[in-house]
Amino acid sequence: MNSVKQRMPRLLDWLDEREPDVVCLQETKLADDAFTTLLGKELAGRAYETALYGEVQWNGVALLSKVGIEDVVTGVAGAPGFPNPEARAVAATCGGIRIHSLYVPNGRAPDSDHYVYKLAWLKALRDVVAAGPAEQIVCGDMNIAPADADVFDPAAFVGSTHVTAPEREALAALLATGLHDVVRDRWPTERVFSYWDYRAGMFHQDLGMRIDLVLASDPVAERVKAAWIDRKARKGTGPSDHAPVIIDLDVAPDGDIGPVVPPPSNPRGARKRTTKLPQNR
DNA sequence: ATGTCATCCCCAGGATGA
C-alpha cells in the first residue's frame, strides 16, 4: 500500500474491479483504530471482514475476507523485534485456508543489524508455517527476489539486500515446508515484476523486481487456475510502488473457498466465477 | 540507476524509511 490512507481511493476502485474474496495488505502505515475509522464502513459495505495489525507510522498488515476470518494471529511466534515487535504479520483461516499476510523486514544492507533481524524473522516464520495446517498461503512483501531473473539487472544488485544467498536460503527453507511460488510456476520464463522504484522512471522502463510472492501449499497450489501480477494497478496517478499479485483458486473438493453463507440474492447458492487472464502489459 | 513518495515533527522543511 505504501500508506492505505494515501491509497484509499485506488484501493476501493481496485476492490470493486477485481472483487477478490481475500485480500492481503502490507505497509498500511496506519493504527488499527485509524484503519477502521477510515475504511470500516467501506469494507463492510463490500462484505469484507478484517483482521488488522497496524502501527501509527510504519509497517502495518491487514487481511480482508468475504469467506470468513477465523483464528486470527498477529505477529510471528518466536520472531525478534527491532528491538520491539513490529506489525509485520497477520494470519487467519479464510475459506478453509490458513493465510499469512506478511511484510518481511527490508534488511537495508547486508552488514546491518536490520539484515540480521530479517534473517532471524524469516527463520521464525518458517517454523510457524511448518507447524501450520496442510492448506496454507504465505504471501506478501517478502523483500527477497527468489532468483536473478526476478530483478531487472542482477549486476545492479551485487552487494545489496533482497538477492543475497542467505536471504534466498531463508526463502528456500520456507518453501521447503511444502510451498510453491505459484506465479513463477505459471510464468517460468517471463519477465514478471511486482515492485518498481518510484524514482528515475523505473516503472515506465520496466526496471523492477519480483519481491511480492504468493506461496501456496500443495493442496492449494493444485487449485490455482490463474496467478499473475496486476501491473495495471501500478499505472496512473498516485499508485503504490508495488503492484498486487492475484491468484484465482478453483473451489476445493470439499467446497471450501466461497461465501460462508451464500448471498441471499443468489437462489442457487452457486458463486459465479471467472478466470482472469494475465494482463501483464 | 537514488531522479520519489510516504511518515513524523507541527506549519517548514529536515530526518527517516523504503
TrEMBL record:
Coiled coil: none annotated. The keyword Cell membrane does not apply. Pfam families: Exo_endo_phos. The keyword Ligase does not apply. Residues 10-242 form the Endonuclease/exonuclease/phosphatase domain. Its cofactor is Mg(2+). Residues 251-281 are annotated as: Disordered. Keywords: Hydrolase, Magnesium, Metal-binding. Belongs to the DNA repair enzymes AP/ExoA family. This is Exodeoxyribonuclease III. It comes from Kribbella lupini.
